[in-house]
């Protein structure tokens, strides 16, 4: 799962015993060499899907991390793109790796639950960050995204189908979430990272409550499950005009 350039077990343990913000500050230099980074195949698939419904003016990468999703924005946005993240360490790596061509780029340190912007964006994307928010935080998070979009703006992100009960992935994710709950019960500060808490039904309901019109776009590159449902979708939530 990890390349030789990735973090050691000891480094991961230190990160896991830190807060989310400080943990990612520590992990930032090696984050791109871990399985936690969104795969390029997902980024390319989302970029193709957005290209079909774009182009867009200005874009925001919510919880941008080391900036992998910023390349998606730069491919579909004409004006400017912004990355926001709570971790100064992750933003530092993102600045260093950013491409110099394309629309202007800005990097902002901020909390996704209290975004420091007005309604300035036509597109907001996010990749792999929602496990860091508890289910009760989704209404506030989606309201924040709604508030920074211009009328007619789009909030888009990929979401995978849940693991089949009894499968290896199912037990792996269940075990990881259980370990995180035990860790947070006995150690402070908490490190919120739950892979099974972000469920499509809940997400769709809370997006509608926040004022979005919601559509689902299958990402065909990832195929379909035996029951015919897509293995991965792009959620497209639109702020009405």
Automatic annotation (TrEMBL):
GO biological process, any:
methylation
Q: Does the keyword Transferase apply?
A: yes
Gene3D superfamilies found in the cross-reference section? Vaccinia Virus protein VP39
Alphabetical UniProt keywords: Methyltransferase, Transferase
| Domain named Methyltransferase: residues | 60-153
Superkingdom to which the source organism belongs: Bacteria
| Record has Protein biosynthesis as a keyword | no
MF GO annotations = methyltransferase activity
What is the name of this protein? Methyltransferase
Q: Which organism is it from?
A: Streptomyces fructofermentans
